[in-house]
Write a structure and sequence with these properties.
Elements lengths: L13 H5 L2 H31 L8 H8 L3 H7 L3 H26 L2 H25 L2 H29 L8 H8 L7 H19 L5
Keywords: DNA-binding, Transcription, Transcription regulation
Protein name: TetR/AcrR family transcriptional regulator
Organism: Paractinoplanes bogorensis
Length: 211
């Protein structure tokens, strides 16, 4: 047998006739390259997440240096500074949303909600720093697209708490989002000092009262 892919008619495909051994080897090597690209992307996002908290404007060359990659590699993933910052924020939102079901799987609903609020504090820092560094239109778009998914994550935690009888029945996801949105307005010193207490007060406020 020739080893070429066969069309349903039994004829060798034109693309297969053109493919030589070198091309087959290149095709087999493609998945590792994609894995490397994904790894580079993750490294870039981690570095940018840390560097965005430092004073001054985030520099793409500083991100590339922190990752140990060339600037060309970075620009292939993120052509502009705003592209990178927007993805840092989206990545943070994705992790925050994913944390809700993971915490519910390991904890009682009210404890899961409290643990999720701890994660919200980290998200608030990123939101504050990214939104301060991007254009106003970009920050509005990011906020608009993240509000619904974050609201759904909050609602899943509240539903579980209401079902368990530990969260007050009138609590709404919008209430929680309005309250936690203030965290992103605090600087690091105030967030460290007040954040845990504010979130603890919020958990107590959501707790179902006993008759």
């Amino acid at each position: 047998m020739s080893g070429y892919p066969i069309q349903p008619s039994g004829h060798v495909s034109a693309s297969a006739r053109r493919s030589g051994p070198g091309e087959k080897e290149a095709q087999l090597a493609a998945p590792p390259r994609r894995a490397d690209a994904q790894l580079n992307r993750e490294r870039i996002l981690r570095a940018a997440r840390e560097l965005v908290r430092e004073p001054g404007e985030l520099k793409l060359n500083a991100v590339a240096k922190a990752c140990g990659i060339g600037q060309g590699t970075l620009y292939r993933h993120f052509p502009t500074r705003e592209d990178l910052l927007a993805e840092v924020y989206r990545h943070e939102v994705d992790e925050l949303i994913a944390a809700a079901p993971e915490l519910l799987a390991r904890h009682e609903p009210l404890d899961a909600l409290a643990a999720w609020f701890d994660r919200v504090a980290a998200y608030a820092r990123i939101k504050r720093d990214v939104f301060a560094a991007v254009e106003a239109g970009t920050s509005r778009d990011l906020a608009a697209h993240s509000l619904g998914p974050i609201g759904d994550a909050v609602e899943s935690l509240l539903i579980a708490g209401r079902a368990a009888g530990t969260v007050r029945p009138d609590a709404e996801a919008r209430d929680v989002i309005v309250l936690i949105s203030w965290l992103s307005r605090l600087d690091d010193t105030e967030l460290d000092a007040r954040g845990p207490r504010l979130l603890s007060i919020l958990v107590d406020g959501l707790r179902a009262t006993r008759d």
